[in-house]
Design a protein that fits this description.
This protein is an alpha+beta fold. It has one helix spanning about 1-30; strands at about 35-45, 45-50, 50-55, 60-65, 70-80, 85-90, 95-105, 110-115, 120-130. About 20% of the residues lie in helices and about 60% in strands. It has an eight-stranded antiparallel beta barrel. It is globular and about 40 Å long.
Length: about 130
Amino acid sequence: MRQRSVWLAATVVAVLALSVGSVVWGQAARADVSGAWTFSVESAAGSSTPTVTFKQDGEKLTGHYSSQLMGEVELAGTVKGQVIEFVVSADVQGTRIELRYSGTVEGKDSMKGKLSAGEFGAQTVTSYEL
């Protein structure tokens, strides 16, 4: 009976340790991109530096995007772990343009990825927080 109690206690301790470890690891793995960022976008057509302000609620991402091409527009997307994706849409001189950003958060103030601009192709994006 005593041996069974010891085994049960050891099992409970192991389960609690795993639970706490997974919660702590889950928090460490979740990126928080809230705040203002300046993106550096490089393409064959040249470079640009749009300003992006993110508001994050769990995995849901909303915010504001400002650039010379798109003007001032809202954005929506997700942050899952270290992976960030968001979309910006606007009418530019009568043409609907949709920009799809996807990348990874590499630290508190760094992310890298790609920008897909439909028929305009893909572009490399690096960014940093303001």
